[in-house]
Design brief:
This protein has two domains: 146 residues, 3-Layer(aba) Sandwich (Glutaredoxin); 154 residues, Glutathione S-transferase Yfyf (Class Pi), Chain A, domain 2. The longest helix is centred in the middle third of the chain and has 21 residues. By secondary structure, the chain is an alpha+beta fold. It is globular, with a radius of gyration of 19 Å. A four-stranded mixed β-sheet has the order 4-3-7-8, with helices on both faces. Strands 1-2 form a two-stranded antiparallel sheet.
Length: 325
């Protein structure tokens, strides 16, 4: 969108490159929900944590949106924060809804495309129209389209508004979590996209090497600890998980990250199964939709739009990670 008006969402026009290297556009809308509505670290105040007030717009295939769905179930906010799922396809209108079916309807505003939510909820917006998007019914404004901020809001803002107990960003571990987040984001979360969207061999190999350097580092780290920061799950685990759960079904093939599979790693593979088997998390995972999304018709990556039938991956296998405490 430019100055609040929809322009185009054609792939080559919407992606940013420098010397063949894919560069992710920064999120623009970064207000915060807080327990009392006071201003957060960025943006405006006025967004108080209240049950039924906020609505998430997501897409099943998007790993950044997946983070927010995970925190929604971890914190037991399913009945307090409603959600709409965009259809599992991109069109010339970007992310769209099919209001004829409840699965992919905009159950909040009844819009036909996500850009219309942006046009109403953030007048004059310039930037990409992305998921996740957190919308405030009360003020008719978009709160945030930055997944890292949204999961921190869900982690703590609703603790006095009916959220399930649990802190995935405990103060003593924050420096360690932040350092892990930075390394994992650069090398892996975004690294697979830099490999998959690269326009030159040099850019691809640079990203490819960083992806597997990061995976190898994580596998070593998990050899003697159940989770990334010890015996308890933290935000760092849940920022990593959406990439891991997509790796073998999508990134290994569609993004040419094919040195090793997740299932080839001694510690990362059972660790990923451990996270998947956390209560209610499996309900946020949709392998077939990931394949449909990443193998959709694309002049850059899949010009015929053929979706592979495999692989078969069993995340329900026992993981034996409890022994690490």
């Amino acid at each position: 969108m430019i100055d609040g008006r929809w322009t185009t969402d054609e792939e080559l026009a919407s992606l940013r490159y420098r010397e063949g290297r894919f560069e992710r556009s920064p999120s623009v809308i970064r207000h915060w929900i807080t327990p009392d509505g006071s201003p957060g670290p960025t943006g405006d105040g006025g967004f108080k944590a209240e049950a039924g007030r906020y609505h998430l717009y997501v897409a099943f295939g998007c790993p950044w949106a997946h983070r927010t769905l995970i925190f929604r179930v971890l914190k037991g906010l399913e009945d307090r924060i409603s959600v709409s799922f965009a259809a599992p396809r991109r069109t010339e209108q970007g992310w769209v809804f099919d209001n004829a079916t409840p699965d992919y309807a905009d159950t909040c505003l009844g819009k036909s495309a996500l850009w219309e939510v942006y046009a109403d909820g953030h007048p004059g917006y310039t930037g990409r129209v992305t998921v996740p998007t957190l919308y405030d019914r009360k003020s008719a404004r978009i709160v945030s389209n930055e997944s890292a901020d949204i999961i921190r809001m869900l982690n703590s803002a609703f603790d006095d508004a009916g959220a399930r107990p649990g802190d995935y960003y405990p103060e003593p571990l924050r420096p360690e979590i932040d350092a892990l987040n930075e390394r994992i984001y650069e090398g892996l979360n975004n690294g697979v996209y830099r490999a998959g969207f690269a326009l030159t061999q040099e850019a691809y190999e640079e990203a490819f090497d960083q992806v597997f350097e990061t995976l190898d580092f994580l596998d070593r780290r998990l050899a003697d600890r159940r989770y990334l920061c010890g015996s308890e799950q933290t935000e760092a685990d849940w920022r990593l998980f959406p990439t891991l759960v997509r790796f073998d079904v999508a990134y290994h093939y569609a993004f040419k990250c094919n040195l090793r599979r997740l299932s080839d790693y001694e510690h990362l593979w059972p660790y990923a199964r451990d996270l998947y088997q956390t209560e209610n998390v499996r309900d946020t995972v949709f392998f077939d939709l990931y394949k449909q999304g990443y193998f959709s018709l694309s002049e850059l990556r899949n010009p015929l739009g053929i979706v592979p039938k495999g692989p078969l991956i069993d995340f329900d296998q026992p993981h034996d990670r409890e022994r690490l405490g």
